[in-house]
Design brief:
Layout: E1 18-25, E2 31-32, E3 35-37, E4 44-46, E5 51-52, H1 57-73, E6 77-84, E7 99-106
Antiparallel strand pairs: 1-7, 2-5, 3-4, 6-7
Amino acid sequence: MSSKETQVLLIDQDNVAETWEVIVTDPSNGAYRLVFQDPVTLEYIQTDDILRSDESEWSFNDKVYKPYYKEHVKSGIQTTKTSYDENGLETSDPALVKTVKYKVEVKKRSN
């Protein structure tokens, strides 16, 4: 009689190659664009869409991902948004928000 043996190896590596933040004060008004510089070609790439000061994390992620990270870096990114009140405490109440921090984690290193 013969027997079979199956082995499974699962490796899950969290490789965050780059992390950067944008901090917006008084997010009730205003708009801006982000400009990136390709490290190989030195070309400047700006966000196609204007970012609003009160942008959702999903919208911010999308507007930053498409023009630079998708086309030039070929990497996914993950954005988290944290809102703070006037005392620097985290809040989810839009009426109390005085500062917003967008933290972007890039999943692949630039060439």
